Amino acid sequence: RVLNKLEKLESRLSQLDSIDKKLVDLTQKMTSMGNRVASLETSVETCNGKVSALEVSRTMDAKTCDDIKSKQSGIESKLKEQKEFVSKLSAECETLKKYNSTLSEEITDLQSRSMRDNLLFFGIPEANSVDDRNTEKCSEIILDHLEETFKIPSARTMIKIDRAHRIGTYTRDKIRPVVVKFNYYPDKLRVKQYVRDFTTENTDCRIRCGDQFPKAIQEKRKKLIPTLVAAKAANKRASLSFDKLYIEGRMYTVETVSQAGYI
Length: 263
Known about the structure:
four-stranded antiparallel beta sheet; 263 residues; alpha+beta; rod-shaped
């Protein structure tokens, strides 16, 4: 009996040892799990810290975005104002251009009217000395040529010249033209016709005359003359009047002269 009890006791002790080992293993596993949990908690805390930092960063980014949007809105508003201002300026510039163009045309017209009674004489010899040039009486010289060179009857008594003078700055070896203002417009036409007829018959005559025009019209005439010459060479009826070219009765301007077909 005692032996049986001892065997039972020994069996229980053996079981206790097994339980002990299991408890030790369990304790080690628990410790390991505890370490892992601690590590996970640390990781979680780190992640929480990063998340918090990201949230702060997102908040700052959102604020920055709001600031950028606000500034962009302000810039767009200013750009719109500038565009409207530029558009207004452009419209004003166009108005000014039209006004200047109209004003320029009016001034040219007034200049043309003021030059209506004028003729330019080319090739009239000019004095060499300064004193002689200063005392030169252009009206007398013109009247002398009208009577003696161009054979206009009673030119001195029948034709009245308001004034006459050289134009431009004196240059050696270059003869300046003389501008003559006639008192009576028909006298200008008469003189012009006489001179034209004379120089047509006497091609060796170096004196010529022509109408005086404002610079703006002169520039246009220069651009039209090549077409005038080409049209006449083609035996077409062509003439130049102020800044208008007429070929076979059709009028051309600087803007439309290419349509004439001579360029």
